[in-house]
Design brief:
5% helix, 182 residues, four-stranded antiparallel sheet, single chain, mainly beta, 2 helices, Thrombin, subunit H, four-stranded mixed sheet
Length: 182
């Protein structure tokens, strides 16, 4: 399946009027203006559009990824998982701003498989290959969480505790999100 997902500009949303519309941060009949939108295409046809309403919050970071048959959208203070096959859109509030999505290609580790890690300002979340939230580890930092690598069932990363530049390392168990004991 040649599916693509990208953030689209306000001008491009008009080109996607015939696409099935989903709304993050409100109901599909909401009249609120979207602050951003994600267009999802199958082949050359614009099939779906996810509008992000102001209630999702604001962040300097945004990301959209296709992982298997799922689309992950990180924006504002939310991460959403959209299934074009079923039309399900699941949203998860984050503790602070959205930071980044990490897949097995980002970490260069097959251990992550088809699951996805989501970093926010203070926490790390892991979703399985079906888009279900497996665990959430809060309190890793105060202004940013970064995954460096995954090795031997452990996540190695850094979290900022004293901005700017006060980064501290962390290690978590990949299966549970629990802190590793040295």
């Amino acid at each position: 399946m040649n599916m693509r997902a990208t953030f689209v500009t306000a001008e491009d949303v008009g080109d996607r009027r015939n696409a099935d519309r989903f709304v993050l941060g409100g109901s599909s009949d909401s009249t609120a203006s979207a602050v951003a939108a994600v267009g999802i295409s199958l082949g050359s046809e614009a099939n779906w559009r996810v509008d992000l309403l102001p209630v999702v919050g604001h962040s300097c970071f945004q990301d959209v990824r296709r992982v298997g048959e799922l689309i992950y959208i990180g924006y504002g203070e939310q991460v959403a998982v959209f299934s074009p096959r079923t039309g399900d859109l699941a949203s998860h509030s984050l503790d602070g701003y959205f930071g980044r999505l990490f897949t097995s290609s980002d970490t260069e580790s097959l251990e992550l498989g088809s699951s996805v890690l989501v970093a926010s300002a203070t926490e790390l979340l892991r979703f399985d290959g079906t888009g279900q939230l497996l665990w959430r580890k809060s309190g890793l930092g105060v202004d940013g969480v970064i995954v460096q690598r995954i090795q031997d069932g452990q996540i190695f990363g850094n979290a900022e505790w004293d901005p700017p530049g006060g980064w501290e390392p962390f290690r978590l168990l990949l299966d549970s999100g629990e802190a590793c004991r040295s």
